Each structure stands twice: as structure tokens, then as C-alpha cells.
Amino acid sequence: MQFCQVCGNDIDIRSSHCPYCGSDQKDDGRNHLKSKKRKFHQKTINLEQGLPTVQQALIRLEREIQTANLEQIRVLTLIHGYGSTGKGGAIRLECRKTLEYLCNKGEIAEVVFGENFNRRQGSVKNLLGRFPELSRHPHLNNNNKGISLVVFP
To answer: Spelled out in words, what is the top-level CATH class assigned to the domain 42-151?
Structure first.
């Protein structure tokens, strides 16, 4: 087995195209890198569990991102909730600020907010091409403002 150079999925070593994303797998002299690519793993974390304060939720968020990176998770789904006021809760707002900051710093590759996790969105189409397993994600196309997806490099 080897890994697709684009999406990271397992493919047959004799394949010239990835059956998942369709990318060309020509030997470009970097075959030694293929075996180091991460396999697709995803994980869901509920940051609301236990009714934490905003500060407790942010500490857990950063700890879970570090853990997911060590565990070679490719996509981390964070459940931060929407808030009981109907305008977006403090945990949601602060988590999203933190995720944007981490993305800008390069600590995470991408963040997709739940209301944008729709297969018609260009960035999500690209994500589904890289990780076809996400097409079975329970929150895809649900306009769920209470979640965010973190994509690791």
C-alpha cells in the first residue's frame, strides 16, 4: 500500500490514479514522502460537555488540538454549541476567534464553520475531494452553527 499524494488515502501501489480524489499518482521522485503522509482519521470533541466556563472550554480546545495533532487526526469536529440566547454563545464566539487565530498562525491548516459545511461551498468541495470520508459526516449540509471543523496539515 501507499498513500495518495493529494488526499492521503490508502491506494494500491500499482495505481496511477487515486480512486478517492482522482488525482494522478505519477512518480515525481518523491515516493519516499508518500509513506509519511497521514492516513485519514477524524475525531469529534464536545466542548460543551460538563457545562464549562468560556475559559475552561478554551483550555480544552487548545489541549484537544494538540492531542489531535499528536494522534495524527486529519479533521477534528468541535461541538461548541450555538448558545441559549439565539445570538451565538460566548463559548462559540471565543472558540471561533481562537480557531481563526490558530489558522492564521499556521498551527491548523483550515477551519470550516458548521454553517459553511455544505457540499456546494468551494472550500468544502475541495475538502471532500481530499477526504471523501467526510461525505458521510453527520453535520454535512445541516447549517449547524454549533460546530466547527478543524483541518490539520
So the answer is: alpha beta
